[in-house]
Amino acid sequence: MARLIPGWLAHYPKDKLGADIAAGLIVTILVIPQSLAYALLAGLPPQLGLYVSIFPVIAYALLGSSMVQAVGPVAITAIMTYSVLSPIAPPGSSLYITLAAALSLLSGLMLLACGALRLGFLSQLLSRPVISGFISGSAVLIIISQLKYLTGVVPHGSNSGELLLDLLEKLPQAHLPTLTIGLLAFGILAIVRLALADWLVRVGLSKAGADFIVRLMPLVVVIVGTLAVIEFNLDHGQGVAVVGSVVAGLPGFTFFVPGLDTVHRLLLPAFVMMLIGMVQSITMAQALAIKRRERIDPNAELVGLGAANVVAGFYGGMPVGGGLSRSAINVAAGAQTPLASILSALAMIGVVAGAAQWFERLPLAVLAASIMMAAISMIDLQALRQAWSYDRADALALLCTAGGVLLFGLEAGIGMGIVLSMATLLYRTSVPHIAVVGRVPGTEHFRNVARYEVETLPGVLFVRIDERLFFGNLGAVEQRLTQELERVAGAHDLVLVMSGVNLLDTTAVEVFGEINQDLAERGIKLHLAEVKGPVQDRLMKSSLWKALTGEVFLSANAAYEKLAPPEVWCPEI
Fold it and tell me: Is the overall model pTM greater than 0.85, yes or no?
């Protein structure tokens, strides 16, 4: 039994109990509107967002490694669920709910498998620009999807561009009371996000207190909007759309096995959801751990997130993930350990059992405004500016991923980003950086002759290769060596500085064997310098090592002194 108890619980510090209790209660209250909103965003009944804020949260808290990351309904998984399932079944239908549960179950099983096989390193396979482009493109999709609730107009189209154009054409037909409520809610939330925190700090409130009030305001807006609908009978009298019936009470666990046809249809979307969830959850957990001077276990994160999604498949039927806003609320509320999340889940049971019906007259326009404001914060223009100024290839990957998401869908968008990133990586490795180097006067250091004033030896060429050597870049290496040797009058020695070479594959060894033989026929010796230990261990087993016409030097400077004429390095002789 002791092995089944998480370490943080077995050695729980009693002085943190008060903070965790307070954080759990605060988080429960603040995430209710968010949970309802993301369930509707996913095309599911609103109460499902509350259901998956209970037992999936407990599963992650017991199995994950982050002390403060909060799991639950999140915008990315919600919009992915809607994008995948809406072409297959009508949103909100029993088939749709079953497919959502199957999607959660499949992605959870994949995450569990990756965690069990210790594949946490896979989270590093997607570059930050690709992830940023995917999230930014998804955020724009979220915004477009919520405009119908904000305006009361239902647009039609096969992609985001057509939906937006159709909405603009129908905008004069917007439902005025709905539009008024939505714009008021959006405007208040925008002012709160942009200016309220700074104003509160200027009037004397602490920054932590100001941030907490800012995070509390969406709930205040939801409550005020709901009270306005009730007071003025806006739903029945003016036709303002509201959440509607919210089923009260706790559901039971529904264990099921998806059919082969369902698995085949959802396998690729579940894999994409697993990959995005993996990267987002581990990245966020690491960021939170760094701020708190803690460490996380990526594999435990996968197990925790996988277990949360498996439980969500059987209880609630909505995929979950590590939520940025939920985690921020958890931290701002003062959470110290996962006990805060467990207490929040237990408190949510009380909400679902006795208070869910309070949200039936919550206007959808207010929820849409809240979702849109959260989505706007997900659009990462700063990442685009940084990538554009530092590496245009990364910026192109970001833009193509975001554009692919908007034009062709989530799976195609992330696929385009991955393909472009891999193509960039292959191009860079196929054209390695190669520098002709010389010795900095008065030192033992060697630098690029194009950047520094250096000393060189007549007839001796020092070349540094800064890339692993494999079948894909050997042509470029051969061509560059030939060009540089042609520039050296009376060349008789070639020294390859291998400090930047981590690997030579079989093809590379054979090619360099041919280069060694060709140079020997031209009266040029091939030397190696600064060969790394693992590379040398493998080279010593090859035919190249025995056939090498030159020597293997410990350093470039040792080669320089050995090959230099006596008058160069010993002028007193």
Answer: no
